[in-house]
Amino acid sequence: MDIADADWVEEQGEAVCRVDVRDGWEYDGIGHLPDAVNVPFDTYRAESHASDGGEGEVGMLPGAEQFADVMGAAGVSREDDVVAYDDTHGVFAARLLVTCELYGHPPERLHLLNGDYSSWARDHPVSQEAVEPDPTTYEATFDPDGPLVEADVVAEALDDPDSVVVDTREQWEFDEAHLPGAVRLDWQELVDTDSRGLRHEDDVLDLLVERGIDTDRRVVLYCNTARRISHTYIVLRHLGYDDLAFYEGSLTEWEEQGRPLEKSEAG
């Protein structure tokens, strides 16, 4: 799983399956990458959290059967190299790719476009031609041994000096309530507002080290409903962080279980 520059994606042509996760009206009305298929965000996101009666295995996952239907209808198979994009710096596209991994798609075949549709459109061709995918069979099986961790594991990590629990939300959210001892790293701090893609890698690494998010520590990620941590997860994977844990339940589940929270003075 990595972050792919636009030039590389264009060079690959049909060798990679381009997936646009914006709403249909954006895909149809504004344009899209040539040959890209449309898999809107709400089609691979559960309507409610699993802890609140949702049908997915955990958190906001849609369930293996639903995800297989969505991807198969878009003509995507697990053998495909997939590059996903949105028009919001990649945060929604990252969620698709993480969902793919959690349902068994080989991570080395998953790529996040560096930037988004707006940045692509500056220098590369776009299209408004309808793409009619050939439906295929997408094999989706939830992997319980993947990067997902449960709340008890997160609680242990909070007391483990060899681990760092990272909150990827905005400052005001963190101030109002966060896991005790968590380090804040707003996912947007990793994004360059001009290029709309990842900041220079040296700058990102400096920021991570400054926050104590080192490659020799286990990194446990959370936000509210696990959307924003998807982007941070892919960035860290791209930068060579190997020991990553993904708390799918995130703050929503943590609060519902009545686990401790703390506020910043500002909150």
TrEMBL record:
<dbReference type="InterPro" id="IPR036873">
    <property type="entry name" value="Rhodanese-like_dom_sf"/>
</dbReference>
<feature type="domain" description="Rhodanese">
    <location>
        <begin position="159"/>
        <end position="263"/>
    </location>
</feature>
<dbReference type="InterPro" id="IPR001307">
    <property type="entry name" value="Thiosulphate_STrfase_CS"/>
</dbReference>
<protein>
    <submittedName>
        <fullName>Sulfurtransferase</fullName>
        <ecNumber>2.8.1.-</ecNumber>
    </submittedName>
</protein>
<dbReference type="InterPro" id="IPR051126">
    <property type="entry name" value="Thiosulfate_sulfurtransferase"/>
</dbReference>
<dbReference type="InterPro" id="IPR001763">
    <property type="entry name" value="Rhodanese-like_dom"/>
</dbReference>
<feature type="domain" description="Rhodanese">
    <location>
        <begin position="19"/>
        <end position="129"/>
    </location>
</feature>
<keyword id="KW-0808">Transferase</keyword>
<keyword id="KW-0677">Repeat</keyword>
<dbReference type="GO" id="GO:0016740">
    <property type="term" value="F:transferase activity"/>
</dbReference>
<dbReference type="Pfam" id="PF00581">
    <property type="entry name" value="Rhodanese"/>
</dbReference>
